[in-house]
Amino acid sequence: MIESPLLTKLTGYIGGRWTDNAEGNTFDVYNPATGAVIAQVASMSEQEVTAAVEAGKSALRLTNPYSIETRRKWLEDIRDALKEHREEIGRILCLEHGKPLQEAQGEVDYAAGFFDYCSTHIQALDAHTIPEKPKNCTWTVHYRPVGVTGLITPWNFPIGMIAKKLSAALAAGCPSVIKPASETPLTMIALFSLMDQHTDLPDGMVNLVMGKASVIGKVLCESPDVPMLSFTGSTEVGRKLVLDTAEQVKKLALELGGNAPFIVFDDADLDAAADNLIANKFRGGGQTCVCANRIFVHEKVADAFGDKLAERVNKMTVGDGINGDVDIGPLINKAGFDKVKRHLEDALEKGAKLVAGKQPGELGEGLFFPPTVITEVTRDMCCYREETFGPLVPMALFRTEDEVIEAGNDTEFGLASYVFTGDAERAQRVAAGLRFGHCGWNTGTGPTPEAPFGGMKASGIGREGGLEGLFEFVEPQTVPRGF
Ligand code: NAP
């Protein structure tokens, strides 16, 4: 079992108190590298989730709002606590998620960056008076907190995803009821330990509920006291939340799935493109929403680029992330492993060629999937149409700019995309043509706290990060004053 000074309680946190399930119900948390159960965590009932919403309601201040200075201090304290405890939070994250230790600790720094950004820019949420005086009135715009928000996060960035939401919610003065993914609740409990010990948050301002998604989701969707949900996860669950909140017309912020094209033109620096693809694709074992999912390579450089990729991939190590010196950890669970395997089998059966990695029959036991490169991928293959969420690099060939823009957009998703070319005008045209919220030009980098990030099409609604993200949890209220 996992032991940590940040995990002395394995329960929810409601109204400023660690709160167990009344019947003692728990669920198991696994280390995906070993398969061992490392913790048993409280599974909350409908009554307890409702109590968390009530606690949030009691912390909401509308007529006497928390001052900007107070909110800034909360954000700074969480930032500082994360920085101080980055190693321990990273260790917990590594043990429940599987990503390499250094990468896990880097995710804690990334999370601290969102609290830092919001604390630095919180003044933007102050009220302002517009310079014009239409209709003989003085017009003031206030940014009011939306209210109690439900924050639902996935397992692939156990601290990064909550940091994006919680920093902006606290900046706005919104209490929250937070539900982490059932695979990775321990990192969230550790964050609540830090907030409990190192911040002066009012009771009920942050509440933690864990357990069955159907139970928690039902309360958050149906409660009239929760006017907004911010969700990161699959498009499938995002769609369900749209339907389940339609009756009340709730405000939704949705960060959903991706199917990122990574385009390499024949005038690109192939070594730089290969290095960027490796860094992008194998982060989190390929289990990120911004991982390149379809690699389009100009036919003139396809062989050369494939060789460069194979050379790099063959040097990568796969193993238990806690050992520190591995590049890729295990996949999160058997369903995730089986999906990547199915995509590889399907592609090879339909004519793709293995450039690096193992045949599906040679994969062995456990959740460790070797980095794999295949070429001659076509649009009828599962790995082209679906988000693989694993260390499989599928390469397809293209000839013209128009053809590759059309191919890149040939998906319901619109989250991240990448284009590698030495021609600046072409880069501008391709970025403008790709219907994706993020388009890296000669870089495979994903989001950063300082810039807005989010999806077009079925990849979501709204933005996290940057000033756009800071404004996600406020309702602008206009007050024209007549005399
Ligand atoms: P998921 O299955 O959709 O789950 C995400 C969260 O939603 C989990 O906490 C889950 O709880 C909860 N949930 C499931 N059903 C629910 C319901 N009916 N009501 C309320 N909550 C519900 O996604 P995942 O497998 O954890 O994450 C992977 C997906 O997230 C990928 O598609 C990836 O692309 C996407 N993602 C997107 C972004 C982005 O920024 N756009 C970032 C990261 C990940 P349980 O764990 O208890 O089931």
Look at the structure and give the mean pLDDT: 98
Q: Please report the number of helical segments.
A: 15
CATH top level of the largest domain is Alpha Beta
How many discrete domains?
2
Could you say which overall geometry the principal axes of the C-alpha atoms support?
A: globular
CATH architecture of the largest domain: 3-Layer(aba) Sandwich
Q: Describe the strand arrangement of the main beta sheet, using strand numbers.
A: 14-15-16-13-12-18-19
Bound molecules: NADP nicotinamide-adenine-dinucleotide phosphate
Number of strands: 22
Class per helix and strand makeup: alpha/beta
Described by strand count, sense and barrel closure, the largest sheet is: 7 strands, mixed
The CATH topology name of the largest domain reads Aldehyde Dehydrogenase, Chain A, domain 1
Helical percentage: 25-40%
| Full CATH superfamily name of the largest domain | Aldehyde Dehydrogenase, Chain A, domain 1
Over the alpha carbons, how many angstroms does the gyration radius reach?
23 Å
Give the DSSP E fraction (strand runs of 2 or more residues).
15-25%
What are the segments in which pLDDT stays under 50 over at least 5 consecutive residues?
none
For the termini, the CA-CA separation is: 67 Å
